[in-house]
Amino acid sequence: MKYYELIPSIDYPKAIVIGRHLMFNGCIGTLKSIKQEIYMGQPYSHHYWRDAFYLKDRETEFFDIDWKLARHNVNLFKNDLKDKDKWNAIIDYFEYSGDFDLSIIECLVAQKMYIKKFSESRHSLIRQLVAHYGFSLHKLMYDKHSAVRCAVANRGYGLDKLVFDENMYVRIEVAKHNYGLDILIKDKYTDVRCQVAKQGYGLDILLYDKSPYVRAEVARLGYGLDLLKYDKSKIVQKVFSESNISSK
């Protein structure tokens, strides 16, 4: 697929040609060739453009753009998913420019379309969306971006590996699935141990945790109140008071 980078008129954003389609400011239209030097028009609405640009390789093209699908109305895209050439062009533009709309991508992912392409995107938000829908988890569990690995853990996949993840938020997601709590109870980060306490695991140990936030979670579950009522931490005392009031 050949890309042409276009030279825009002054103050216009860049546009690129992908195959036989023109992507301009997030819009896609048909490409028609006419014999002339340079034509520059003016945009006449937010979603409809009629512009022409001079190509860097000295070809001259006229771009007649008729954008019939409102960019932010995903429902309109659902009836147009069979045009694979157009959607391949749109996806390539998203990847090339970084100017993408997640609602459009979500529509495609929900239809199980272009999963391989999206799972290999250079944009972590797109890969995270793929993982959120439960696709390509075997690959995305090793993703370099922690948010993507969090999404994988959220699906309950690869927990035996992710329980040892370097990012604490990934480990918190693992704990939410009641996996590896015997390991995570010793985690150096308070937030992870708090999540272990929320799962109701090892309360007899976490009752004596060095962090008042962890002890507060234990108190919130109503465990060890006979000891925690003497806790010197205001955080724990506040939770204890709330628990005491609610039990009356």
Describe this structure in words.
The protein has 248 residues and is an alpha+beta fold. The protein contains 14 helices and seven strands. The chain folds into three domains: 1-113, no CATH class; 123-177, no CATH class; 180-248, no CATH class. It has helices at residues 84-97, 102-110, 115-119, 124-132, 137-140, 146-154, 159-162, 168-176, 181-184, 190-198, 203-206, 212-220, 225-228, 234-246, and strands at 3-7, 15-18, 21-24, 27-32, 50-51, 54-55, 62-64. The chain has a seven-stranded antiparallel beta sheet. Helix 2 runs parallel beside helix 4. The longest helix has 14 residues, at 84-97. The relative contact order is 0.06. Residues 1-76 have low confidence and may be disordered. InterPro entries: ARM-like (IPR011989), ARM-type_fold (IPR016024). Keywords: Plasmid.
Low-confidence stretches: 1-76
Number of helices: 14
Instruction: Quote the average pLDDT.
Output: 72
How far is it from the N-terminal to the C-terminal residue, by CA?
Answer: 71 Å
Could you say which overall geometry the principal axes of the C-alpha atoms support?
elongated
Computed CA radius of gyration, to the nearest angstrom: 27 Å
Structural class: alpha+beta
Biggest beta sheet attributes: 7 strands, antiparallel
- Proportion of residues in extended strands: 5-15%
Total number of distinct structural domains: 3
Task: Please provide the count of β strands.
Answer: 7
Helix-strand sequence: EEEEEEEHHHHHHHHHHHHHH
Instruction: Please give the share of residues in helix.
Output: 40-55%
- Strands side by side in the biggest sheet: 5-7-4-3-2-1-6
